[in-house]
Write a structure and sequence with these properties.
Length: 147
Amino acid sequence: MTDESERKNVANTYTDESGKFAQGNPGKPRGTRHRVTRAVEELLEGQSEQITQKAVQMALEGDSTALRLCLERIAPTRKDAPISFELPPISTAGEASKASQAVLKAVSDGEITPLEGATVMGLVEQYRRVLETTELERRIAALEAAK
């Protein structure tokens, strides 16, 4: 960040010396849109149905760009899909190791993709942390009750 003396507009800004918004100035209100976005919305106001119909008509006439645009809106590409493979039950933090082995085996056998495996592994790790925290809380409560 530049030094305050190097900033020519420091007196006109709502930021502190480090460039962050000053205390009590959160910046733009939530949901505020850029003026260009608002201008485009005003231009298209009331014409969205006609524009959509024209895009469909162009797609039906063979315009590949219009066809792709229409298809992306009708049937967007799937970002995520359910997967199914054997995963042993996890009731203790130690059993998460067996579940991790099952995930690695499923990836190596080609049952699931490496990306899917990484996602499931993340879920197993989060669940292991929950179990571990629950166990620690139980132990602390038992120690405090024993006093």
